[in-house]
Amino acid sequence: MPTSTLTSDPIGSTPLTAADIEEALARAWAGACAVEAVPITGSTNQDLVTRGRVQQPRHCVLRAADFQTCGRGRQQRSWRAAPGDALLFSVAIPMAAVPPALSAVTLACGVALAECLAEHGVAVQLKWPNDIRVGGQKLAGILSELVIDRAARYTLVIGVGVNLRLDAAARRAIEQPAIALDQLLAASIDRRRELWIGRIGGAVIGTAQQFMRDGFDPFHACFNHLLEARGEMVDVVDDVGRVISGRVLEVDRSGRLLVDSGAVRHAISVGNVSLRAASR
User: Fold this and answer.
1) Chain region(s) in the chain for CATH 3.30.930.10
2) What is the DSSP letter of 77?
3) Which helix (H) or strand (E) holds 21?
């Protein structure tokens, strides 16, 4: 294992260091993982997706960047952050087989991220299926993608973005209310990027591997406990504009959102849908 000392530089003042991320990751998760850190890339998710389509990695890979030129979330939404102002990383996890209800791994990783933040004094809620929020404002997001290589082997790629700071330009560019860690963390809490990436990365990898063994069931109760909008009226809008309106009940054991419209109870799968406060 590396023996480098974690730096104490302020967030964003120096480029990310792979050895420091690896050291922090080793404290959070015991397993083989190649760590990469680059100053700039299009998208860490896309980097690992492209690689996974050619060949499944032998071990897990964590790839982090100071800045992404084409960062994205669900439904191809852009991720906006100035250089050094967000935690931006993805992990690639080789899989022997695809477990049932794989899309719910995004929800399980949301639980892992929420628990990691709670350990450091940041209480969050989970907006189904992939946003981490504080007081109705987006703090972080998760994007999961399944990749198949030329030999029909599977790799799960999970991307994480967490706002560290939000300048005026970033706030204007984001299409929803947003919040950053520097608004939530006490001065005494460690704010070093490598430590946070290692902590969260370890939690995400460990959670994904547990999901592959046990499915969503171990995370089901906690996700519902943290579920934002539970009991509230919402509109669920698909990619062609169709709307289901009703009251949020909970998430089921397959990760589907249960919405009661009065006449019908809908079970909505993760996909090209958006969840919004009811318009009427």
Assistant:
1) 18-225
2) P
3) helix 18-28
Give dist(CA 85, CA 12) in Å, integer: 6
What gap in Å lies between CA 233 and CA 236, rounded to an integer?
A: 10
Summarised one tens digit per residue, pLDDT across range 113-146 is 999 999 988 999 999 999 999 999 999 999 999 9
User: What homologous superfamily does CATH list for 18-225?
Assistant: Bira Bifunctional Protein; Domain 2 (3.30.930.10)
Report whether CATH 2.60.40.10 matches the domain 230-277.
no
**Model confidence pLDDT, tens digit, residues 229-278:** 999 999 998 877 778 899 999 999 999 999 999 889 999 998 778 888 88
pTM above 0.85, yes or no: yes
Residue in the structure block whose two tokens are 């999961």: 144
Q: How far is CA 32 from CA 56, 58, 113, in A?
A: 15, 9, 21
Phi, psi torsion values for 112, nearest 5 degrees: -60, -45
